[in-house]
Amino acid sequence: MKRILVLGAGLSSGYLIEYLANVCEENSWLMTVADGNFEALKARTSKYPTIKAKRFDLEHEADAEVLFRNHDVVISLMPAFLQGQVATYCLKYRKHLFTASYCTPDIKGMEGRVKSYGLIFMNELGLDPGIDHLSAMQMIDKIHAEGGKIHTFYSYAGALVSPESDTNPWHYKFTWNPKNVVLAGQGTPVKYLENDKFRYIPYQQLFKQLTNISVEGQGDFEGYANRDSMIYKEIYKLEEVKTLLRGTLRRPGFAKAWDILVELGLTNNEFVVENANKMTYRDLLESFLKPDDSMTIQERLLKHTGRAEDKESLAKIEWLGIFGDEKIKLQKGTPAEILLELLERKWRLNPEDKDMIAMQHRFLYEKNGKQYEAIAELTVVGERSPHTAIAKTVGLPLAIGTKLLLQGHLSHLSGVQLPTDRAIYEPILNELKDYGVIFNEKIREL
Amino acid sequence: MKRILVLGAGLSSGYLIEYLANVCEENSWLMTVADGNFEALKARTSKYPTIKAKRFDLEHEADAEVLFRNHDVVISLMPAFLQGQVATYCLKYRKHLFTASYCTPDIKGMEGRVKSYGLIFMNELGLDPGIDHLSAMQMIDKIHAEGGKIHTFYSYAGALVSPESDTNPWHYKFTWNPKNVVLAGQGTPVKYLENDKFRYIPYQQLFKQLTNISVEGQGDFEGYANRDSMIYKEIYKLEEVKTLLRGTLRRPGFAKAWDILVELGLTNNEFVVENANKMTYRDLLESFLKPDDSMTIQERLLKHTGRAEDKESLAKIEWLGIFGDEKIKLQKGTPAEILLELLERKWRLNPEDKDMIAMQHRFLYEKNGKQYEAIAELTVVGERSPHTAIAKTVGLPLAIGTKLLLQGHLSHLSGVQLPTDRAIYEPILNELKDYGVIFNEKIREL
Q1: I need a surface site. Which of A223, B35, B114, B214 has the fewest CB within 10 A?
Q2: Closest by Cβ to B287, choosing from A198, A288, A290
Q3: Has the ipTM of the complex gone over 0.85?
Q4: CATH of A260-346, one of 1.10.10.10, 1.10.1870.10, 3.20.20.70, 2.30.30.240
């Protein structure tokens, strides 16, 4: 009998648990869902009498030992910073691991042991990273099989709000980890490949270097570069590629306004503002600006951050309410934490809102002396929470991948993996179609 | 018999060792100079037969134990990142500690034990921090004693090159730790007080927020804010102050050109450029720029960093040679490390060059219903290396302070200290006059 352990019963676990509950019932497998939050556990598992719900603290090693020992594969939905600890337990108790998190150097460093124990640690099997890898590899393998040589590959994805629920001038609401949005571009240096040359984008330039992208039926977006794209040249087996960039999608105008907050210092996470709750948001803005009685605070903000007239961006910032006399809610915090607390209220996805994910791959390649462009596009619109597009597109690949493992379809794979093998991307992409996750592909000669 | 241990025999130790060698001879005290570099040790100590030179590795605890046990006070000229280790040894073996480094939270945290053992850990007793504290406190105590209320205090200092040795368009050469210059503003958040409000300057704004400063007889400078000025409100006993800013001096135009390198990303110390030695400096620049065949690389650099016509800054950057085809010397390194290696050659203080330090305090205060301005200015021009102005102004305060301790003049002080007590600032400032370190003071009614 196969036994699955799911760590994390947060909002994003809904589709995953639902899918695996059915699979377990069909196959007489067992599943345990573990989380520190009892309410979340109840909400996610009470519908399924066969699922065991277990309150669990990763720090408590005796509990962890019992849990890990009694299962065959661990699906971790834990925050990125805890994945190293989860992987360490998986090594210790010799269990397979499936996650949607980025593969870190820590986990990469476990490769030798994971392989020698005959385990799979499958990383980046969610949406982005995840479905982007699956669909990119499917197209790359197809173009290569036909004798094509890919010189350019752009891949963009974004978790956004559906147009019908788009009620703010940023055209954005949080559908995923808000902290990652506020800190985007900090910590991990942004690198990509262009015309066979390495390119670097420092944080202060990231939201200035934008690309316009149109997705059929969904209108216009803008894209900015995401993390280190260069490592995917090897991962995607694209030895021939000269330009390779992975990026994040937002609606046009988002980045230009966000960059004002970046330039001002409001996304800074390196120092703490003490007694923040005695300040208004306007006070906080003032602490970054030079006083000048001849200008309004709005004019000073634009001048200070090097903008001339930029009424559109200013309107977005006005909408946040930070020129007003509202008191800051946190007692103390970094500017980024204070901004995060505000944005979590302003950019909240309400229960009746629908989210949307958009993804676009664009390949330029040569075949038989001719130049081609291939585009693959995906849009998924969510239903009411917890049936969001993001929960679906993060949870289902993990769930289907785990099923494939337990059915023995991945027995040729071992070690620290990304989902680039045909044995994993093909069945997952096929099954995702049943859930409306369908790529639209277009190829044309240039 | 008193015994002094000097850790570090680098370039900056010349004046300190010379001064203390004479003091030791007069008083029949003993001194040991310890360093990992035997050449440096020889160069610094061979003139003084009574000084013991000891090759020493801080990591080797058995050696450290013998050294620390056999002395009464430790003067540490070690790099800032090793001061915590030195302080830990001083606690363990119950020795006084004198340094020119900034007091860190680590060392601050030792306050209880330092005090209970009856020790002094004297920090920030060099030039900046150091002489700035001594002279600021002297003026503050004087103004307070006369019943003045100080509402504004600006304090700027810079280690520069003397005009007669100024041979480059940046009007700057390295006279102190070059790494600190390249990384200035990174790591430690910049904060100050203005009109009774906290102000923050994020890194990307630091070199844009400049103040013009003229020092009598030395011409014009520009100043940018340095670290956290707000903590000095309490340290300087300036409860009444509304504006308090400590800053760094450069010759006009330096910061505007430096800011182009900052905006571009060349001061980034967070990611490594691999195979750097296969690239030219121009290649490195290109890796941050967008390609555009219709513009020169110089034009693209200015456009990319948001400058219109800025020929003066461009001339400074041209002078560094980074538009040319010279190969990078490092095999790999962060952009900041690659820039540092280049600048260490370009901004080298040659043996025949003279350095210069400049400092200016400016107080605005009220006394008997009238408004006053008090300015105290210091300039020191160095002689041939190792008799630089920086070695003199960093080494002598430490040396004199240590003498005061051993003569029993600081017996009323204990714990983790900054040099703000009259018993330390007055004798040091008086004795510094013999060495030409003399403040020029001007007071006028406004």
Answers
A1: B214
A2: A198
A3: no
A4: 1.10.1870.10
